[in-house]
Design a protein that fits this description.
This protein is of the alpha/beta class. It is 40% helix and 25% strand. A 7-stranded mixed β-sheet has the order 3-2-1-4-5-7-6, with helices on both faces. The longest helix has 15 residues.
Length: 216
């Protein structure tokens, strides 16, 4: 669960020239996100990774800096974020972002890995199964899905996470699933769960967990 400060520094520098608010948001994202555990998983990957709901793409740029054998294609619904990543792409050319709906993927067996970082809880619960099946379709056999999301326990962390999301993403409700339930969701979509683990530090207010599941 080690963070690579040099890779993080390069990822942060890739946003030079972006508005001051964006740069501040990127730094805050680096503080909150569990980059260490995600980096440990990304080191073992090669090829093309799809990232769903990648937004400002700090996590994706960090993983690409950490692993030169990885190319990341992001999808997001916000055209402003897409334009931001395009405008700074020269400093992180192996990470791209395009407009798209994660539940409407139609790229059969295109990717070696899929990352869903802090996105699933923004979908309605009925869409979670649709999303897991869409991820399965776009992965090559043996491909890996990495799902980083937020637990519902302890309650005080869940309430803080909900407050945080209202500040950052707006008033829409969030729909978190416990780690074991998330793993079962992907197992039903044809995956074999290989890692199901809480990854936050003891005193952080964020109930991070990570599921690694491999397409059978």
């Amino acid at each position: 669960m080690s963070l690579d400060p040099h890779a993080l520094r390069r990822a942060l520098r890739s946003y030079r020239g972006a508005p001051a608010f964006t740069q501040a948001f990127v730094v805050a994202r680096a503080v909150v996100a569990p980059l260490g555990p995600l980096g440990d998983e990304a080191r073992a990957l090669r090829g093309r990774m799809l990232s769903l709901g990648s937004g400002i793409s700090l996590v994706e740029r960090y993983l690409a800096e950490l692993n030169p054998g990885l190319t990341v294609d992001g999808i997001d619904l916000d055209p402003r974020r897409v334009e931001l990543i395009r405008s700074t792409a020269a400093r992180s050319p192996r990470v791209t972002l395009r407009l798209g709906d994660a539940t409407a993927l139609d790229e059969p067996e295109t990717y070696d890995a899929v990352l869903v970082c802090d996105a699933i809880h923004h979908f309605d619960p009925d869409a979670h199964k649709v999303l897991a099946n869409a991820i399965a379709r776009c992965l090559r056999p043996g491909g890996v899905a990495l799902v980083k999301d937020l637990d519902t326990r302890p309650r005080w962390k869940y309430e803080w996470n909900r407050f945080h999301d209202r500040l950052v993403a707006g008033p829409d409700p969030i729909h978190c699933r416990p780690p074991d339930e998330m793993a079962d969701l992907f197992a039903a979509a044809g995956f074999v769960p290989e890692r199901v683990e809480r990854t936050e530090h003891r005193f952080t207010p964020y109930a991070h967990y990570l599921v690694r599941a491999r397409k059978a």
